[in-house]
Amino acid sequence: MKKLLITLGAISIMGITPLLTNATPQSDLEEFRAYFYKKFPGVKLQDYSNGIYALDKARRFEWQESEEFPAYEEAVEKGEKMFAKYGMKSCFKNGGVSIKQNYPYFDKKTGKVRTLEEDIMACLKNNGVDVKAEKLKYKKGKLAAISAYMAYTSRGKKQNVVIPNDPAAMDAYQSGKTFFYAKRGQLNFSCADCHVYNAGKMARGNLLSPALGHTSHFPVWRKKWAAKSAKKRGGESKPFDGLGTIQRRYGGCNKQVRAKPLKVHTAAYNNLEYFHTYMSNGIKLNGPAIRQ
Ligand code: HEC
Predict the structure, then answer these.
(1) What are 183-242's pLDDT values in tens digits?
(2) Mean pLDDT of the chain
(3) Ligand 1 pocket by C-beta < 6 Å: which residues?
(4) Ligand 1 centroid vs 194 CA: distance in angstroms?
(5) Contact of 173 with 275, CB cutoff 8 Å
(6) CB of 144 within 8 A of CB of 152?
């Protein structure tokens, strides 16, 4: 990690003024996009859904090859089967098809942000599924496979997070925004330090992706995660092993700066997801996707 600090020594913090009081979500979004357009003039808005592969040709080539017979394919099929087996169609608008672009949303009844994974979990429970016995947990595994199936049916839809004119919704958005720009962990880095100001630079051999488009392709499939799950099982791998939801990734990025990862699907991460996803409004969904 020391090395990381050295690499990021020359942090540039110009160009974005994140905490202006009179900013609206819409003006934030415009500013966010404009920042990246200026930084990477050759990259088109829709290409930001491809993370680091929008920036690096060599990596992009390798990645495109891996997407031809993608490692997540079987997991998506399993997700579809579980979706049917657990009778989940009835829980969602449009039978759960082509709806991921509307997540996360502000739920007026509870005054809180709701994520897709929470709606999946609630649906399972409503339908009498014994989630413990069936090992349906947040972040990965079977639940992530259901989420991956729903993402798959939503490919091509433009991200469309709505911030209704409601003080509680604005508060949720603001809290997510503050989280995104706040420094944390022993290394004292904010999400923005790595994924805005230093996007396109290297940190410990990793190219840092732009935060614009970050949320379009989740859940993702990572070799690292697949190996970890298989190892736990003594080497036997399952199709959905490599999958992780966006909030699993938040935990990993918090750990990178030696901050304690937070509990998933509680207010802090849900509000972060609300802000983070809103910033990618207008970008077409292309999940699930393979990532390093
Ligand atoms: C110390 C630098 C650092 C910080 C701080 C950091 N990340 Fe990351 N993040 C990484 C690296 C490295 C990767 C893997 C390469 C990439 O895709 O950027 C990554 C990947 C990601 C990805 C996956 C990108 C993709 O295309 O799938 C998301 C989403 C993400 N980070 C969000 C966040 C959020 C939100 C925060 C703040 C809570 C954060 N990160 C803080 C370094 C960081």
Answers:
(1) 999 999 999 999 999 999 999 899 999 999 999 999 999 999 999 999 999 999 999 999
(2) 93
(3) 4, 51-52, 189, 191, 193-195, 203, 206, 208-209, 214, 220, 249-250, 253-254, 256-257, 276, 291
(4) 7
(5) yes
(6) no
